[in-house]
Amino acid sequence: MRNRTEQIRDAELARLLTRVPQLSPLARAAVATCIDRVVDTLLQPALTRVTVRSESTDTSHRAETLSMLFALEPDSAGRCRR
Questions:
Q1: Global pTM?
Q2: pLDDT digit string (tens) for 27-50?
Q3: Alpha carbon 52 to chain centroid distance?
Q4: Distance in angstroms (rounded) separating the CA atoms of residues 63 and 81
Q5: Which of 13, 23, 26, 63 is the one with CA 20 to 30 A from 69?
Q6: CB of 66 within 8 A of CB of 80?
Q7: What is the mean pLDDT of residues 71-75?
């Protein structure tokens, strides 16, 4: 899931930079950090609740719940991806 959020962040930053190309490297880094913090702030409570609720069950149930919640698909190694 982390890879997917990074892909989205990178795509949105690229889109922003085409509209505001004069942003300095420092401003670009600040925007990227801000996006990361917003995503983490929004996702962390949900991920924590899923983890806590699934501690009494097996990890496959947790993976299944996260896959369904975030529309992720398992890759060839069984890890979730979108």
A1: 0.61
A2: 999 999 999 999 889 888 877 877
A3: 19
A4: 11
A5: 13
A6: yes
A7: 65
pLDDT at 31: 93
In the structure encoding, which two tokens stand for residue 25, read together? 């490297």
Q: Give CA–CA dist 66/62, Å, rounded.
A: 6
Stretch 2-10: mean pLDDT: 81
Q: At what angle do helices 25-54 and 2-19 cross, to 10 degrees?
A: 150
Number of folded domains in the chain? Answer: 1
> How would you class 44 by CB atoms within 10 Å of its CB: exposed for 0-12, middle for 13-18, buried for 19 or more?
exposed
**What span, in angstroms and rounded, lies between the C-alpha atoms of 53 and 47?**
10
Residue 53 tokens, joined = 């609720």
